[in-house]
Each structure stands twice: as C-alpha cells, then as structure tokens.
Design brief:
By secondary structure, the protein is of the alpha+beta class. It folds into three domains: 126 residues, PAS domain (Beta-Lactamase, 2-Layer Sandwich); 85 residues, Orthogonal Bundle (Helix Hairpins), CATH 1.10.287.130; 155 residues, Histidine kinase-like ATPase, C-terminal domain (Heat Shock Protein 90). The chain is built from 13 helices and twelve strands. Helix 7 runs antiparallel to helix 8 and helix 8 runs parallel beside helix 13.
Length: 379
C-alpha cells in the first residue's frame, strides 16, 4: 500500500520553515554560491550581489539553465575555465585563489578564494558546487607579516654590517695598544690617540644600538606617549647649548629667533630628541664658518619651528628616502661625520606621536630647511 502524501498544515509549515532555514544558509554573507549540472548549466545560486567582488566576476546576471562559462567574466580563467569544472566533475575537491579588480577609478581589488566541490547523489556525481569567499583581509594580513619579516631582516642586516665595523675597530685599536705597550713600556704619548679612537667607536656602536631600540619602541602598538604642556623655546635653547662644542669646532654661528612661550602638548624628552637630531644634522652638513638659523613662527592655531642650514643640501633621490629607516643612501658630513641612518625616521615617528607634521626643503649645494608644525597649547 502506497504511503499517502502528508498535506497537513503542520507538514506544510514544516516544509516552509525548512525552506526558510535553507535559504538563510545559502544566502550567508560569508560565501557567494552557485552550482552547475554535468553540462555546466546553472542550477542554483544564492544572493550573489551582496558580495562586492561578484560585480566584477559576472559578465551577465546568472540565469538558471544558462551556460556558466558564458556568464562569467573571461578576465578570470580560474572561474570560467571549463577545465576546473571538469576536474570537480571527475571527483576532485580543490581551492583556488584569484585577485579580482574592483572599482577601476578607485583602484580597489579583492582577493577571493574559490572552492570547487563535486555534488553527489546516490554515489553519482551530478554537478559542481562553487563557493567564493572574500579573503582580502587575510591576504593583507599575510602581506603585512611578510613586510614585517623583511623589516626584521633589514634590522639584522644593519646590526650584522654597521655594528660590526665599530666593534672591529675597538678590537683592532685595543690590539694595537696592547702591542704598543708591550714594545714601548717607557712611552705612552700615542696611547691617548688610540684611546680616543676606541671611545669614538664605542660611541658609534652605542648610538646605533640606542637608535634601534628607540625606533622599535616608538613603532610598537603598545607604546603610549606621556604628555604635558611643554615650552619648545626652552627645549630649543637647551638643544643649542648641547651643540656648543661642535658649533665651535666648525666656527658656525647659530641664532634662535622665537617667542619665549611656545607651548604645545608633548613629551619634553622626545621633543629634545627631535631638535638634538635636527640641529646635529644642520651642523654636520654645514660648511665651516657658515651659519644655522633656528626660528619659531606663529601660524594662528599652529606653531612652525624651522631649522635652516646653508650646507651641502640633498639630491631629489636622497629626499625621497630621507625618512626611510633602512635607506642605503647615507651622506657624510662636511668633515666626514657619520650617522646611523635612523635619526630622521625617529624624528618623523616622534612628530607623528605628537600629531604634528614635518616638511623638508633642500637643494644640493644650497642647504636644507626643516619645517615642523604643532598645535598650540593654552597655558
């Protein structure tokens, strides 16, 4: 006896409810889904246009019974290549990734992962299910990790190459002193010269280590800048005083023109680091018997601090890489002074933490002007 079809209201409500749940799953925000039969004819698809990347993939709206190859954009062979569908029809499950161009004017793009799976009915393959998922965030994170690994490799390169030189100098001069003392115990006149070179090499090594540690701290996501109202005039005065001996050594004149109250919300020690570095650069790249100008200007809601030298200046290429902490472009000072190559990267990071802005104007043979902009702070 045949089983009678259940047309009761309870059964119909159950079927309707199951269809609602089925559609809600298929219209998931996570995947764009479509299926085809063995002839590559479209059998089913969910709400594809809720996924922005599908607007680039579809040449025409999907229609049941249409050939899938004719409906998909031929710019992306991963999804309109009959071979991929045939591979799934032969029982293979596999995933493929593709970069999909979005809005051409905005230059947007998506990374999409496509999952091809055979559809089985009573152990017979009757079609293919394709699920497409936006994995742009994951790919960007992977790229970020790759860039961070490259950065770490660059740090290791700096430590291995640049730090090795001063340390080797220390060892070499130490050996010379030891040998000299052994051969000339009654004399010590040249000993001071060797000791000077040792101390200079130690300073270079310590400066590089300190810069590496500082840039690492400033770029840490957990770093929080402690601030209070500070007077840039006082910090500039102290920075100039600290450069007294190097200014005298090059017979430079340095002049500060600024209001005596230049208050911003900031960190005094970090701002001292900024002006120490900028003044050091201005002196380093200045010719002897020249001048360095330091000034602060009132720009309504902002303070503009300017450090101007009339020294060697920079090439356009050097200016492009000025704030690159791993740039291979490094200039020596007019008396052969060297640097770690991290100073300007540290300066830029500190200014950014103060919500400030830095601009640099430079011309080879004519000098450099560095302009710093900070919000005023009432006091």
């Amino acid at each position: 006896m045949d089983k009678k079809e259940d047309n009761s209201p309870e059964s119909l409500n159950s079927i309707i409810e199951e269809n609602i749940f089925f559609k809600s799953v298929l219209n998931s925000e996570s995947f764009a889904i479509w299926s085809i039969d063995r002839k590559c004819k479209v059998k089913f698809f969910n709400d594809l246009y809720q996924h922005p990347f599908m607007k680039s993939i579809l040449s025409n709206p999907l229609q049941q019974g249409e050939d899938i190859i004719e409906l998909l954009n031929d710019r992306y062979p991963i999804i309109n290549d009959i071979a991929n569908y045939q591979r799934a029809l032969n029982g293979k499950k596999f995933n493929l990734e593709a970069e999909i161009k979005g809005n051409v004017l905005q230059g947007s793009y998506f990374w999409v992962e496509f999952s091809f799976q055979p559809i089985l009915h009573e152990e017979t393959i009757i079609g293919v299910l394709v699920m497409a998922q936006d994995i742009t965030a994951r790919k960007r994170y992977e790229r970020q990790l790759l860039e961070e690994n490259i950065t770490k490799e660059n740090i290791l390169g700096i430590v291995a190459h640049d730090l090795r030189t001063p340390i080797n100098n220390i060892q070499g001069f130490s050996n010379l002193i030891e040998e000299w003392i052994r051969e000339h115990p009654e004399q010590s006149e040249d000993l001071q010269k060797y000791l000077f070179y040792i101390l200079k090499s130690c300073e270079q090594a310590n400066e590089l280590i300190a810069d590496l540690l500082e840039i690492n701290t400033l770029e840490s996501e957990s770093y929080e800048l402690e601030t209070e109202p500070i007077n840039l005039y006082t910090i500039l005065q102290e920075a100039i005083q600290k450069c007294h001996f190097t200014i005298q050594d090059k017979q430079l004149s340095i002049n500060l023109q600024a209001p005596k109250e230049v208050f911003i919300e900031g960190n005094a020690s970090k701002m001292a680091r900024v002006f120490d570095n900028l003044l050091s650069n201005a002196i380093k790249f200045s010719y002897e018997a020249n001048k360095v100008e330091v000034s602060v200007h009132d720009r309504i809601n902002l303070w503009e601090a300017v450090i101007r030298d009339y020294g060697t200046g920079m090439s356009p290429k050097a200016q492009l890489k000025l704030f690159d902490k791993f740039s291979s472009i490094r200039q020596q000072g007019t008396k052969g002074e060297k640097s770690t190559g991290l100073g300007m990267a540290i300066v830029k990071q500190i200014i950014a933490l103060h919500q400030g802005h830095i601009e640099v104007e430079s011309e080879e043979g004519k000098g450099t002007s560095v302009h710093l902009f900070f919000r005023k702070k009432a006091h």
